[in-house]
Amino acid sequence: MAYKTPVSVLVVIHTPALDVLLLERARHPGFWQSVTGSQEDGESLLETACREVREETGIIAPAAEFLDWRQSNRYEIFAEWRYRYAPGVTHNMEHVFSLCVADASPVSVAADEHSGYRWLAWREAATACFSWTNRDAILALPARDSRLAQ
Q: Domain 7-144 - what CATH class?
C-alpha cells in the first residue's frame, strides 16, 4: 500500500462577488468543504492545487490564476482517516490557495469523493464548513484581494 503524504492543499474557489464553492463529502453527508487534496510525489504545491481542482470540480484553470497565500496550517488527522498514512503519522500540513472564477457555474464533482456542491455567500460558506482551517480561510478571503467585493 502506498501511503498518502501528510502534506496537502486547501483551495478556496470563489467568484469576484465572494460566492464560495463548497463540496459535500460523499462518505460524510453534511460535511462541506472547499477543494482539498494530498501532494503526490514530485508535485509542487501549485501543481497539487491545479490537479485537485480539476479532479474534484472539472474546473481547468491555468496555474497563474491560483493565488498562493503562503499560509500553512498543521492539524491532527481524523483517526478514521489515519490508515491512509504511514504508521505513526497523526498530523498534516495544509497549504492554502484560492482561485477566483468568473461566476458560480455548475461543476462536475468527483462522485467517489463528493455527493454534491453548492455556491454560498462567503460568510454562509464559512459557517457551513466542518473544518476550522477551511472556515478561517474563507473568513480571510475578503482581505486577500482588494478587488473583491466587501
A: alpha beta
Which residues, at least 6 apart from 91, have a Cβ–Cβ distance to it below 8 Å? 6, 74, 75, 76, 77
pTM value surpassing 0.90:
yes
Query: From CA 54, how far away is CA 42, in angstroms rounded?
Result: 18
Using CA atoms, how far apart are residues 6 and 57, in angstroms rounded to an integer? 22
* List of the chain residues with pLDDT < 50: 150
CA-CA distance, 145 to 75, in Å (whole number)?
Answer: 26
Q: Which value, in Å, is the radius of gyration of the alpha carbons in the chain?
A: 15
36: which strand partners?
10
Per domain, the residue ranges of the chain are: 7-144
Longest CA–CA separation in the chain, Å: 47
Distance CA 24, CA 111 (A): 10
Among candidate residues 106, 107, 98, the one with its CA nearest the CA of residue 134: 98
